[in-house]
Amino acid sequence: MDKKLLDAEIEFLETFNKQGESYASAEGRHGWRNPIRRDTGELLRCFVIAHNASRILEFGTGHGLSTLYLAAGLRDKSKQFIHSIEFDPEVADSSQERFNRCLVPVKVFKGDALEIIPQLEGIYDLVFFDAQKDQYYSQLMALLKYERIAKGTLILADNVLDRKTECQSFLDWFVEKGVSHYCMHTECGLLVARL
């Protein structure tokens, strides 16, 4: 991992419009892609370090800002890696090229997360949700169904305060199951939970 390149790419992506951009797929699926805020990015880096995460899964690669913040917390790329899922194939390819240039251990999976989850292997020890907010719950259920998360997995999710209505079923699950969690008052709201 080239720390200078990594930091330079983070700073470059931090210049992107935080209001984001809309997109539509060939199948007519619409969405909104916006970069995470800097306060959230710094927290992602800290959580990777504090949790000593080695197997990380991210929903919503986008242009790769959150992925690079996650990667900045990695210490041993021979033992640690990130899998990131991006629906838009062009954006996924562009982000994969960025990660390759920075020599970070990231593999971007292209397509719908619910179709990709069954193909993944092993248990992740940190999962970051930042794709379509109304899909957080179904993605979480799929991770549980296919045993991709387990006791001790750290769950992080962005936009749980500024887009709370879209995330409500996801948030309710943690309450109903008695899973210890906290919604940090970042600019957009970051859920932190440990299974």
Structure explained in plain terms:
The protein is α/β, with parallel strands linked by helices. The protein has a single domain (3-194), classed as 3-Layer(aba) Sandwich (Rossmann fold), CATH 3.40.50. The protein contains seven helices and nine strands, in the order αββαβαβαβαβαβαββ. The chain has helices at residues 3-13, 38-51, 65-72, 89-101, 113-116, 136-145, 164-176; strands at residues 21-24, 30-33, 55-59, 81-86, 106-110, 126-129, 154-158, 181-184, 190-194. The chain has a seven-stranded mixed β-sheet with strand order 5-4-3-6-7-9-8, with helices on one face. A two-stranded antiparallel ribbon has the order 1-2. A hairpin with a 5-residue loop joins β1 and β2. α1 (3-13) runs antiparallel to α3 and α2 (38-51) runs parallel beside α3. The longest helix is centred in the N-terminal third of the chain and has 14 residues, at 38-51. The chain is globular. It starts with a helix and ends with a strand. The model has no long low-confidence stretch (mean pLDDT 90).
Question: What is shown here, in short?
Answer:
The protein is of the alpha/beta class.
Q: Mind sketching the topology for me?
A:
Elements: H1 3-13, E1 21-24, E2 30-33, H2 38-51, E3 55-59, H3 65-72, E4 81-86, H4 89-101, E5 106-110, H5 113-116, E6 126-129, H6 136-145, E7 154-158, H7 164-176, E8 181-184, E9 190-194
Parallel strand pairs: 3-4, 3-6, 4-5, 6-7
Antiparallel strand pairs: 1-2, 7-9, 8-9
